[in-house]
Amino acid sequence: MILPIVGYGDPVLRKQGEAITKDYPELKQVIANMYETMYNAYGVGLAAPQVGLPIRLFIIDTKPFSEDETLGKEEQEALAGFTKTFINPTIVKEDGEEWGFNEGCLSIPDVREDVYRQEQITIEYYDEDFKKHTDVYDGLIARVIQHEYDHIEGILFTDKISSLKKRLIKKKLQNILEGKIRPDYKMKFAAKRGR
Question: Considering 26, 113, 128, 148, which one is annotated as catalytic?
């Protein structure tokens, strides 16, 4: 089932997600709905707060990035085959040089800005079967994980840009808040909640 994506300004996007257990109600269905929602919106990642659930869960499928011809064949193949569910994740280490990349977010449509993140992460998490993993990722995969991880910490990519850039996008953010935009996917806008 395709769920509405929560728009900028909704308080759920600012909450730190709560850890869940394998007994979380209808967990498999929640995950399946999140994948369907992400694919419908042509996203590469989606965190539970973006569908209104303040829990520590996000999903990723970096296949769309694999079509970038500026990347090497090895990186394209890694991106094409990377689909993963992260439950109760903790980034235990970030390494390497910070590098900029133009990021966007399904909860903040039509806004893209360069965000600087470290190039490598070590992350502990549970998969959808509640098996524990500790993995190291770098490049675009690490970046997408960092972006989604921020969501479960109540952080948005717009928090990581300069105050000048924030002023420049203020009107766009206000339009999202008020529901004055029309993305190609189902959204729930903060200012329209009480109406």
Answer: 148
- pLDDT tens digits for 44-76? 999 999 999 999 999 999 999 998 888 888 889
Alpha-carbon gap, residue 20 to 67, rounded angstroms: 35
CB 63 within 8 A of CB 79: yes
What is this structure's pTM?
A: 0.95
Q: What is the pLDDT of residues 134-151, one digit of tens each?
A: 999 999 999 999 999 999
Q: Is 147 marked within a binding site?
A: yes
Q: Quick check: is 148 catalytic?
A: yes
What total number of domains does the chain contain? 1
Rounded to whole angstroms, what are the CA distances from 8 to 21, 157, 179?
28, 11, 10
pLDDT score, position 193: 55
**Residues 6 or more apart in contact with residue 173 via CB below 8 angstroms:** 8, 9, 108, 111, 158
Domain that residue 72 falls in? 5-192
The reply to whether 151 sits in an annotated binding site is yes
Q: What is the CATH number of the domain that holds 116?
A: 3.90.45.10
